[in-house]
Design a protein that fits this description.
Distance between the termini: 44 Å
Helix content: 25-40%
Largest sheet: 8 strands, antiparallel
Strand order of the largest sheet: 9-10-11-18-17-16-12-15
Oligomer: single chain
Radius of gyration: 26 Å
Bound molecules: adenosine monophosphate
Shape: globular
Structural class: alpha+beta
Amino acid sequence: MPEAPKQPPRSPSSGHYHHHLSKNWRALDFIEEVTSNPGAVQARVLSEILSRNAQVEYLRRHHLDGRTDRHSFKQLLPVISYEDIHPDVSRIANGDTSPILCSHPISEFLTSSGTSGGERKLMPTIEEELDRRSLLYSLLMPVMSQFVPDLDKGKGMYFLFIKSEARTPGGLVARPVLTSYYKSNHFKNRPFDPYTNYTSPNAAILCPDSYQSMYAQLLCGLCQRTEVLRVGAVFASGFIRAIRFLENHWPLLCHDIRSGTLSSDITDPSVREAVARILRRPDPALAAFIEAECRRSWAGIITRLWPDTKYVDVIVTGTMSQYIPTLDYYSGGLPLVCTMYASSECYFGINLNPMCQPTDVAYTLIPTMAYFEFLPVNRNGSTGRVNSPLTTELVDLADVKLGQEYELVVTTYAGLYRYRVGDVLRVAGFKNKAPQFNFICRKNVALSIDSDKTDEVELHQAVGKALNHLAPFGATVAEYTSYADTATIPGHYVLFWEMVVGGSLKNGRSSPAIPPSVFEDCCLAVEESLNSVYRQGRAADKSIGPLEIRVVEPGTFDKLMDCAISYGASINQYKTPRCVKFEPLLEVLNSRVMASYFSPKCPKWAPGHRQWCNQEFK
Ligand code: AMP
């Protein structure tokens, strides 16, 4: 990728333009600087975190006694997972304001999409972390504009949403990190910047009703179609959901554009007011154009409706790569751009070569965000399972080796010390002396449609619960596997079940004595047993479709094994995969489906943790 020149070019034009350019150069200079000496930056970050938190209970418990050097830190502090700090987190959630993890007051909890005991993990955060997140965001467009010129000459059509929030018993707000960011002054009252000039008004983004929010954002995007230079959402799944919404609602949207009035379904007064500023007069010509394009076909709809779009800005790394074909279909092959890698625990890094292919995306961790360590991992070639030998020394950011895979471990300003994030990364190259990482996977995730992450153990327990519904029929499941079906929008979980009826297989048929409603009950029972992020996706966000059980012919799982072995799986070590992604294996399963059943309704979900007395507030 081109190196960032050290000097801004002489600007011939206005002061505003000059200011904008110099902000760009400052961002690129910052990247140059922190990537040139990551070791020193990381040492400074660690010492800063440890010195300001010297008196916190957690560090005293581990006898750090005010030391801030790397050696003592590594010797005395254990590498931990969420379960290790769960008791500390619970105390904070219940109202203990003493400095347990961090010397700064905990401002709120960020609710991770990673779960523990079926509930979202709670990540304590502090006010100043918003500055760090904003800093990472501020680097994205200066990097992007090195590759795509004139992005400051138009708008971004981004579909951004907030999710519901809850209060912990101690009174702290608990909400996802993006909800926290969009509701912050950093976002709401951002000064005008051509790079954060979006088609969606803040009021539409901040509307808690997902239908009204989506409708208003699409309507505003359509009205400003000729100004749009880039489109996107956070994750690929969210962007595809917006296009599907357009497929389902274009007649209504066109009606509003034709008449210059907003549908009465949009009741939120601040949204109505904001949309009215954009939908100012009837525009029958625009309505007719959109209608004609929507009637024509959905292939390439993005470039037909928003003709100046240069790229689609969505995360398509990790499990989101399953959406690449759908995005290509809608966008007519526009570049798919992954710009950043972040989490509730900490924002990590950015992609310095954003126009690369999705398979080549590598994130450069920004060394000022946190102190990063790396646990070398070996993945089992055939199962993909991750083994992290904890006896191995953790490696520092400046010492990782090209080609090696590592699990990411962070120490943050907000009070996580040597915390395993659960992501596996591979070193793909270097920017100056700073490593760049491919995102390989999140450990132990079998199924994912949106931000849900379901592991094999959870799935197994959920299937186990559902089997109770079959017991009265003398039936059970001999073998099962699963699949995240993203051909439907929204995607949904599919379970393949091979049945045992009355103790033996009945020729090619499931017992007629089992009515379809029982299988439907099984679907719902699995969903009710899955974690709260899954249930929220189903019940509140509608980002996940109803779970499906496909009953397959007897003998199907033997055929599955034959197929896996023919592709190189070891006969001796073969175990039924609990999740299938490989197309030939899916074909074996799908060609033997005898019946399929869907969950008849949404599983129960309420904001906040089960054990809290919840109050939803806006
Ligand atoms: P959360 O804690 O709910 O914000 O989720 C954070 C997790 O989302 C990370 O630990 C990753 O597993 C995943 N994630 C975030 N950004 C990316 C990305 N650019 N590519 C792949 N996965 C990502």
